[in-house]
Amino acid sequence: MIDFLRGAPVAGSLDVVWHAGWPSPKHDPAPEIQVHAYSEHTLILRQNKSVHYEAPFLFLLFGNDRALLLDTGASADPAHFPLRETVDRLVADWLELHPRPAYSLLVAHTHGHGDHIAADPQFTDRPRTTVVGPGLDEVTAAFGLEDWPHRTGALDLGGRVLELIPGPGHQRAAVVYHDRHTGLLLTGDSVYPGRLYVEDRAAYSATVDRLLEFCAGRPVRHVLGCHIEMTTTAGEDYPRGTVHQPDEPPLQLTTDHLRILRRALDETAERHGSHPYGDFVLVYQD
After folding, report:
1. Domains of the chain (ranges, CATH numbers)
2. Distance between CA 256 and CA 231 in Å, rounded?
3. pLDDT tens, 81-107?
4. Maximum alpha-carbon separation in the chain
5. CA separation (Å) from 229 to 95, 174, 235?
6. Mean pLDDT for the stretch of residues 243-254
7. Phi then psi for 131, rounded to 5 degrees?
C-alpha cells in the first residue's frame, strides 16, 4: 500500500511546455491529448486546441483503491478525442507498477459546463467505473455535501484524501478540490490564467472568501485551473475561439492570486463587463 500521508504535501514537477495548438489545426502533428506526470501518482492532461479551442486541462489522480478522473473535456467523439482509451492506458501503466485487484475509477467534475463533461459517455460502460453527474443534486449526494455551499466534504481514494470545497459562482454546482498528498488546489474555472466568468456575483464572492479561509490553514503548493487564455503580457488575453496560443503563460497560479481576485471583486463591485487584472480577466455575465 502506498503511504500518501508521508512527506505530504509532496513536491511535483510543472516543468512542462503545454502544447498550445497549431496555426493550421488540420495539420497539427501533436496528439489529441497531452499527458504530463506531475508526480508518480498525479497526471495532468490537456486537450489539444486543434481538437477544441477550449483546450481544458483534466486531472487523473491515483489512490490505493481507485483513481479519480476530474473532468472529461470538451469533445464527445472518441474518434477525435480518445479520452477513454488514453485513461485506460494510463491506468494500466500505473497498475503495472502498483498491481492490485478490482481497481476502480471515479469520474467527477470541477463543474458542469459542456467543455468539462462532454466525454462522460465514453465511460458509461467502463467496468468498475462511477460517473458522477454534473447536476447540483447529483454532486451533493455523491460527495455528502450537505448544507450546500456552507460545508466542505472529503473524498478518499484509498489513503489519498481530497477535501472538497463548494465553489458556486461561475457555475452553480462547481467544486474546488484540495489534494492533501500534493497540496494542489484544483479550481476548475473559478480561478485560472484566463477569463473568470462570473455568473452569480454573490455566490462567486462567497466562494473566493471560502477559498481564502481554507487556504489560510492548509499547505497549497499550486493553484491549478482548467484553462490558459492569457498571453504573457499582463492583462492581455487571447480572443475566445483562438486555436493557437504561442505566447502562453504557465498554468499554475498561487494563493496570492486569490487575494488579488478578492481585491478585484471589491474594486469592480458596482461595475459590469470585463476587467483585466494581470494574470486574469474578471468578466461579469450579468
Report:
1. 25-284 (3.60.15.10)
2. 19
3. 999 999 999 999 999 999 999 999 999
4. 56
5. 35, 20, 11
6. 98
7. -110, 115
The span from the CA of 226 to the CA of 203, in Å, is 20
Is the pTM above the cut of 0.90? yes
Q: What's the chain look like in SS3?
A: CCCCCCCCCCCCCCCCCCCCECCCHHHCCCCCEEEEEEECCEEEEEECCCCCCCCCEEEEEECCCEEEEECCCCCCCCCCCCHHHHHHHHHHHHHHHCCCCCCEEEEECCCCCHHHHCCHHHHCCCCCEEECCCCHHHHHHHHCCCCCCCCCEEEECCCCEEEEEECCCCCCCCEEEEECCCCEEEEECCCCCCEEEECCHHHHHHHHHHHHHHHHCCCCCEEEECCCCECCCCCCECCCCCCECCCCCCCCECHHHHHHHHHHHHHCCCCCCEEECCCCEEEECC
